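Notes from the pairing session

We agreed to fold both candidates in a single pass and log them together. This is the raw record for the first candidate, unedited. Please don't reformat it; downstream parsing expects exactly this layout.

Candidate A
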Amino acid sequence: MIHSFLLIGQSNMAGRGDLGDVERIGNPALKVLRNGRWQRMFQPVNPDRPFSGVNLAESFADAYQKDHGVEVGLIPCADGGTRIDQWREGSLLFDHAVFQAKLAERTSNIAGVLWHQGESDCEASLTEGYLDKLTAFYEALVRALNLGDVPFLAGGLGEFLENREEIRPYWRQVDRQIEAFADAHPMVGYVSAKGLPGRPDNLHFNAPALRTFGLRYYEAFKALEKKDKIFIEKPREDDALRTALDSL
């Protein structure tokens, strides 16, 4: 059975790394959901815009596949420039992600969620309530897809945002709230973006950074993996029989 991962958030999850700046990952066991069917992984993985590019989920999926020896499927639902309000329960983006995940569940087990979002909420009127909105979104997604025992990985914001005048006063506030959100939920992992370089726009990670970021996401995943319901072994029949006999 394919192990699948839901990709949600804004442009740094969709991927804006320049194609050709890093070697393409040619692992044939990596898949992308397209029209409800699994296709061999292509680029861009998450074509939300004509300029979509390298995605951090590529290196994440490659590392996961090599460790687990299973086919890995990516469910691309990220959308560039979106605020946390646009991901609230009942919104178009929320419902689309849930629908795509449920399609994927027909032929796969959802093993995790990869989330990166927050740059669009780096404004004076939006930062203060970000944590509450992110928490509400997460809890709604867990309910909708029964993901209570599935790792949810939340990426930190890039330090290069400090170079954007309109974002500089707010990005650290949002980043701290993402980390606080992860600390408050046992199945959520915070993935640091410390030291990762950006593109010249100082808004998006470049392609090499996304390769590294994907591996960081995988390291965070491994810390939560032992709690994932997919990996909890069912007792063998003889163990179950022995337990039943011992109770007599």
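Candidate B (folded immediately after A)
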Amino acid sequence: MSFANLIRVAVKAILNNKIRTLLSMLGIIIGVAAVIIMMAIGQGSKMSIRKELSKMGTNLLSIRPGADTRGGVRLDPSAMQTLKVADYESIKEEATLAKYVSPEVTSSGQVIYGAKNTMTTIYGEATEYMDIKLWVVEQGDCFTEEDIKKSAKVCVVGKTIVEELFGDKDYNCVGKIIRFKSIPFRVVGILKSKGYNNWGMDQDNVMIAPYTTVMKRIAAQTYFSGINVSAVTEEKSDACIEELTAILRKSHKLKEENENDFTIHSQQEMMETMSTTMDTITIILVVAAAFSLLVAGIGIMNIMLVSVTERTKEIGLRMSVGARGRDISRQFLIEAVIISLSGGFLGVMLGYLGSYGASKIGLPSSVPLWSVILSFTVCALIGLLFGYIPARKAARMDPIEAIRYE
């Protein structure tokens, strides 16, 4: 029997049992849709995180005090005080691959204006911090180098603070005096809104002031919590890390056998770490969803075995008029594959709808083409694998016994 005839007979047999076929497809449909949606959300989340990190510049480098640690090891407090003003000055003078440099001192607390207050974090920075983190001053101006030298009590604030203290995000509060931990600060600029990031943090709930002011008047410390650096280009980030490492080791008078008492991380490194984490989470979710495909395959095999039993007399008649065992086997295999692929097609459509729905409720979603191709390939394999036993059983029937079957 020709392949075209086998397909025609298989399709006719499937259409004769529409409800049974649909029920056997259901597991495939749900399984494929679940896999597509999980992959779409995982891929969308990874792209969204990379996009968010890219906004801060892929050539961003972050220097933190203390050696690189793993497993939540608690550090000696003195190990977190290794970055000093001298280190910042050395980097400014000697680093040829650093475009912008800004030391960082932070403190969290309550900011007050009149009878209103809100919790925020104040960042003590240099003027170059705006270029490193791509901040834009929408109203007013940024503080100046002169303000840093004088440890002036001036700041720029985010839109959330403006709204919380003055009741309107668009309120021009430039020139107003606000207090942070009882220290008065004059607002010299308002930052353009960035909104929430992918980790749910409000990027507009921020105060930025001269680092000298925060060090002397608020934190009362002589060391930095970090130094932010922007390499001249993304391609030279690794070379810049090596240069910064050499400068800091020299500044800290570390011998060759001594470990670094500081850690330098690149934005690219953070991107790769986040991508790896998201890939792992996606794989776990996809594997969980794929178990339903295994159950669906068993369901198809069960339905096909029932079909072989019900059509025993038909199989015997076809064999008695010349149909070979391999023709019978192929017919049942084709039926199983058609059921599986049809379920896969409907599952992909449902997966696309689910991914679209996820994007509409705020979840990042992007269906990768390879996931669709993989789904159809798996469905075809499921049809062949779980259709083989029923097809083999049908092909091995004795024609005379099959015709006598009641």
